[in-house]
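Appendix C reproduces, verbatim, an entry submitted by the partner laboratory led by Prof. M.T., so that reviewers can inspect both the input and the predicted structure.
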Amino acid sequence: MTANQLKETLTYKVFLHKEPEGSYTVTVPALPGCITYGETIDEAIEMAREAITLYVSDLKDNDENIPDDKESLEYLLNLEMV
């Protein structure tokens, strides 16, 4: 790495959705269309890392803005419905 190349840390929320057959679909809300899947949680997360890396690389190659979630907050709200 040269002095001109700085390492950047990007932060992304990923959502894992368990499918009826037992595998997991992963979505990355900050990156529209960035969807992948894995047979296990570990595999799904690894596939998400790869999908995000490729997505961000494509954005960089096209000089596009690279969004991330480092300034986002998340809260789960439970509602009891009658």
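The mean pLDDT is 93. Additional entries are available on request from the coordinating office.
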